[in-house]
Design a protein that fits this description.
The protein contains 17 helices and no strands. Helix content is 75%, strand content 0%. By secondary structure, it is mainly α. It has a single domain, classed as Up-down Bundle (Growth Hormone, Chain: A).
Length: 430
């Protein structure tokens, strides 16, 4: 019996593209577009540590302190914006956050003096992270459960398309002066706010009629959810490692004689690899054991940063280490976001997403300061070795969480078309 001919390459590409990006609501794609625009101009956070140490002449400890204050603002915003997302709405919270970020990013470029820079960096962090719970809640509102991991992966893809391009270009711009980076970052964030205001409607589900025996979920409800808080705690440990990529790594590379242009190209590899690999790896991840994916991601991230201790003054070896921990990011991000969305009750999504975001914010507060001090006082071997240890401990924690009774959602991902047990479907038409 003759074997039917294989479909042409163009047909296979169209089919793969349709499976990767098809079937998602139009509002999601406007959100995706706004994210891409914002990240294309997202220069400042990536280059802040390098700007403070090489252009302004401040110490690594001060750069770590400023990054930590940025993280402190982010931590406060994570919880506050999560509450506002549920109470006031997703759209107004997101627009206000973007407008504030644009304003204070521009101000930071003109600010002088250690205290003033630290204060404005705190305000940038406060506004910048206020958008995260709202974006995550919008995706959970409008995308069916079976497509959420794919939607979060696509949103993460947009972040890294922008990040990869902006990091590479920003290194060239920075060599002629850093002020332009701050101005362009502010302008892109302003455009993002306009797109959100014009194109993205409010998606907050209507609150159900209150029952006497069912109090409205509050922050206390989130913190008492031990299963969810275990996920947050493990993410915090891993986020402490990941945070070093935009702070301590820049200082270490600068000390090794790596130029700002080389740093931009090396760190831009992170975004480039995510752009190339996120979609095919997300398709490969479908139906695979969630615990195994989280364990693998923790080991890749921890030991990828650990390998930095061997880089010396080689930009190529730094690029290799970035490639290793980038694979871990690709595995971790959509898997974790899908799990958090499943664990979040419909009418408390903002609060749950805010507390999850808090783990990243605390990491951005604690990680730079700890990394800067450890690098300065103990050296690179101790700094990057600690990252490898943290990644290993996080991997062990994911194994224990996957075996914990009653934590089935940590084991196997939800199949396409299924709603996870214990959650409500997204509001129709939202």
């Amino acid at each position: 019996m003759p074997v039917p001919p294989a479909p042409p390459v163009s047909a296979r590409i169209r089919k793969a593209t349709s499976e990767a990006v098809g079937g998602l609501p139009r509002q999601f794609w406007w959100l995706w577009t706004s994210t891409l625009i914002n990240r294309l101009g997202g220069f400042v956070v990536t280059f802040l540590a390098l700007y403070l140490t090489t252009d302004r002449g401040y110490s690594a400890s001060y750069a770590g302190l400023v990054a930590s204050l940025f993280g402190l603002g982010s931590a406060i915003a994570a919880v506050g914006a999560g509450v506002l997302t549920d109470r006031v709405g997703r759209r107004p919270t997101l627009v206000a956050a973007q407008l504030g970020t644009a304003l204070f990013t521009a101000v930071l470029g003109f600010t002088d003096g250690q205290v003033a820079i630290a204060v404005v960096a705190f305000l940038v962090g406060l506004c910048n992270n206020a958008s995260r719970p709202a974006v995550s809640a919008i995706i959970a509102d409008i995308v069916p459960a079976g497509d959420r991991v794919r939607a979060y992966a696509l949103n993460y893809w947009a972040i890294n398309i922008g990040f990869g391009l902006s990091a590479a270009v920003a290194g060239l711009i920075a060599s002629h002066g850093y002020l332009t980076l701050f101005v362009l970052d502010a302008l892109s964030t302003l455009v993002c706010a306009v797109v959100i205001f014009v194109r993205i409607p409010e998606t907050r589900p209507d609150a159900p009629a209150a029952r006497a025996d069912e109090p409205t979920p509050g922050l206390g409800t989130v913190f008492r959810d031990t299963r969810f808080m275990a996920v947050v705690a493990l993410n915090l440990l891993l986020a402490l490692v990941a945070q070093q990529g935009s702070t301590t790594l820049a200082v270490d590379m600068g000390r090794a004689g790596i130029t700002s242009t080389q740093y931009g190209l090396v760190i831009g590899l992170n975004g480039l690899l995510i752009v190339l690999l996120q979609i095919p790896l997300t398709r490969w991840m479908e139906g695979r054991n969630r615990t195994a994916l989280l364990v693998a991601s923790a080991l890749f991230i921890g030991w990828g940063f650990g390998l930095t201790a061997l880089a010396g003054s080689s930009a190529w070896f730094y690029a290799f280490t970035v490639a290793v921990w980038t694979i871990g990011e690709i595995l971790n991000a959509p898997t974790m976001m899908g799990l958090v969305a499943e664990l979040s009750p419909t009418h408390a999504r903002g609060r749950y997403q805010g507390v999850y975001s808090l783990s990243w914010s605390l990491a951005s507060f604690l990680g730079p300061a700890a990394g800067g001090v450890l690098l300065e006082r103990a050296g690179g071997a101790a700094m990057w070795g600690a990252c490898a240890v943290c990644g290993t401990v996080a991997a062990a924690g994911y194994v224990l969480l996957g075996r914990r009774p009653g934590t089935a959602t940590a084991g196997t991902p939800v199949r396409a078309g299924q709603e996870p047990a214990g959650t409500e479907p997204a509001a129709a038409g939202s």
